[in-house]
């Protein structure tokens, strides 16, 4: 939820505007059939925001079900290994279901219940959002349908099985390359066809307004906690915050509470895939341009005719040709920086964190760590970096094993 | 007077509604789709809707998704679609042409340039599926300046209050998406249409075309009588797809689609 300071006129935290825009990005680019639903959702969200009981209920589930607050861990051995700035890890991988995804899902499921919806649809890439959604549907006894690209179903089998165990129906999507973008299309088609009883539970800070704002608000618990925790540990704010970006929800969640703290550098790490200029990348900001897809205007990987290109990343969770609109805006105004990390660099980082801290990170956040590995050694030892470890890597061990030539 | 207005006025005098067939540009290749486009008026098309292939057609069902994919494979671009219309206009200056597609290719082309070039090529109206009234200012002024009708979509979910909002500056005709769903997946009943149309007519004097889920001649006749036009899309594309061999056109492709079109157009003329 937004804090009072976010409504200050000179705050970078006051967006989006009434049209759902962050600068020129965002908006509500959906078919007329969905438009009334998007407006209804916004109304329902405003009512929930204004209701202290909603926040209380959410806090209760955050504490007793999700397991919040998540710790902020000083990574001593990693810091020594890198030989520069102190590295802290925000342990979102310790949340129930193993990633930051549950923060958002918990908020939206409570909203869906307030709205009287009985059927939940969601898209998923790596399966983390799908598992989180299936989890809360089990918790509240709601029907759950998860759309997942057929390619992702294949490379994320453990998560598919988890969703089945949780009672969700997983529908593999064969259109396109069978990844997150195609799953998103199919979830939108389902929503359009089932408007009366269905809630579309978007997993990232993208889609038509109010999703980018709402998902950001629910994920902002991450940054809000970091702010308290780092001040308690170090007596000051960090110098740099690093987070990996697919759609950008874990990054937005940790960035947002710091937007008005100008001395804190915010770095979003996109998946460069085989390299930013390889043509096989998921780096929407570095290699994309402004366009409209999935309900919002944002940076998109597209050809010169406006056809959307397939993204590539070793990490299924980053394999998306777009990015949340607020990130596009933060890039353009220069408040956050966006860099790329390749599949190989992420694999190296994955192993380093596992060896030095005993934490197996998701391949998504291994991208963030890979960038920390580049900047920490160049920084003085009294500087502080916070990395958002947005998920745990158990789901990725098969992918990593195959890249290391190990047959599991 | 615009071609769209002239055509609907002429049909009113004839005392019947219009048949609007749909084809996906470049499906399965440029030549075949152009040939089909050129043959459609003689087979009974009163207006023609041309789908602009897009990589992520999130409001379309499997049939049109596949058609878009074939079109893209055949090299479809928005510029190429305009070229197709230009070629059509060499022999037909009266049948209104409406492009239907998604916003990103237009955004990429440049909204102002697109509206100008489209009218130059002979396009009369555009339907942009993912551009609701709230976002229409991206194209509105350019379209108006160029003389291009932006066709407004209304759906079963559009409330009465919202109808006034959506149809405030509507031009050309109104497109009623008759089901809550994607293209080619379900049909509205006659009773549902009879309930929905008067509500729309209360708000606008423009002709109302009914689309989504119309596949048989009977459905086309019903829709063209309750509304002012029936749009048939997936059913025609399904027929075309059935004639393809390895994704390529065969000798059966045009005859099969045109035969179906004639049956549909006969039904709206009865």
UniProtKB/TrEMBL annotation, chain A:
Q: Could you tell me the EC number(s) of this protein?
A: 4.2.1.20
Q: Which CDD domains match?
A: Trp-synth_B
**Pfam families registered for this protein in UniProt:** PALP
Tell me the ranges covered by the Tryptophan synthase beta chain-like PALP domain, including all copies: 67-391
Q: Which molecular function GO terms apply here?
A: tryptophan synthase activity
Give the enzyme's main class according to its UniProt record, as a single word. Answer: lyase
* Sites of N6-(pyridoxal phosphate)lysine modification: 101
Q: Which keywords accompany this UniProt record?
A: Amino-acid biosynthesis, Aromatic amino acid biosynthesis, Lyase, Pyridoxal phosphate, Tryptophan biosynthesis
What reactions does this protein catalyze?
Answer: (1S,2R)-1-C-(indol-3-yl)glycerol 3-phosphate + L-serine = D-glyceraldehyde 3-phosphate + L-tryptophan + H2O
Q: Which InterPro entries does the entry link to?
A: Trp_synth_b_CS (IPR006653), Trp_synth_beta (IPR006654), Trp_synth_beta/beta-like (IPR023026), TrpB-like_PALP (IPR001926), TrpB-like_PALP_sf (IPR036052)
Which PROSITE patterns does the annotation name?
A: TRP_SYNTHASE_BETA
GO cellular component terms, A-Z: cytoplasm
| Pathway it works in | Amino-acid biosynthesis; L-tryptophan biosynthesis; L-tryptophan from chorismate: step 5/5
* Cofactor(s) the protein requires to work: pyridoxal 5'-phosphate
Q: What does this protein do?
A: The beta subunit is responsible for the synthesis of L-tryptophan from indole and L-serine.
The record's note on quaternary structure and interaction partners says:
Tetramer of two alpha and two beta chains.
Q: Which family does it belong to?
A: Belongs to the TrpB family.
Protein name from the UniProt record: Tryptophan synthase beta chain
Species for this entry = Gluconobacter japonicus
Q: Name the lineage.
A: Bacteria, Pseudomonadati, Pseudomonadota, Alphaproteobacteria, Acetobacterales
TrEMBL record, chain B:
Named in its record, the pathway it takes part in is: Amino-acid biosynthesis; L-tryptophan biosynthesis; L-tryptophan from chorismate: step 5/5
- Residues at the catalytic site: 49 (proton acceptor), 60 (proton acceptor)
User: Which UniProt key words apply to this protein?
Assistant: Amino-acid biosynthesis, Aromatic amino acid biosynthesis, Lyase, Tryptophan biosynthesis
| Stored PANTHER family | TRYPTOPHAN SYNTHASE ALPHA CHAIN, CHLOROPLASTIC, TRYPTOPHAN SYNTHASE, ALPHA CHAIN
A Pfam family that the UniProt record links to this protein: Trp_syntA
Family, as annotated: Belongs to the TrpA family.
**Organism listed in the record:** Gluconobacter thailandicus NBRC 3257
InterPro entries noted in UniProt: Aldolase_TIM, RibuloseP-bd_barrel, Trp_synthase_suA
What is its biological role?
Answer: The alpha subunit is responsible for the aldol cleavage of indoleglycerol phosphate to indole and glyceraldehyde 3-phosphate.
Question: Which reaction is this enzyme known to catalyze?
Answer: (1S,2R)-1-C-(indol-3-yl)glycerol 3-phosphate + L-serine = D-glyceraldehyde 3-phosphate + L-tryptophan + H2O
Q: Does the keyword Amino-acid biosynthesis apply?
A: yes
Q: Identify the SUPFAM superfamilies for this entry.
A: Ribulose-phoshate binding barrel
Subunit relationships: Tetramer of two alpha and two beta chains.
Protein's name in the database: Tryptophan synthase alpha chain
EC primary class: lyase
Its EC number is: 4.2.1.20
